[in-house]
Amino acid sequence: MDTSELQPLFDNYHRKISKIDLRFKRYLYYQINWDSRFIGIKGPRGVGKTTMLLQHILKNYADIDQTLYASLDDLWFASHSLMDLVDWAWQHGVMRLYLDEVHRYDQWAATLKNIYDSYPDMSIVYTSSSLLIMDNAKVDLSRRQTVYTLYGMSFREYLMLEGVISLDAIPLEELLQEHVRHAMRITKAIKVAPLFEEYLHHGYYPFYRESIEDFPMRLRETISVVIDSDLPAVENVSFETLQKVKRLLMIISERVPFEPNMSELWKQLSTNNELGLRMLYALDKAQLLGLLTAHAKSYKNLVKPDKVFLGNPNLMHVLCPNVEKGNERETFFFSQLMVTGNVKYPRRGDFLVEDKYLFEVGGKGKTFDQISDEPDSFLALDDVEVGHGNRIPLWMFGLLF
Question: Options 3.30.300.30, 1.10.3720.10, 3.40.50.300, 3.40.50.720; which CATH number does 3-149 get?
Answer without folding.
Answer: 3.40.50.300
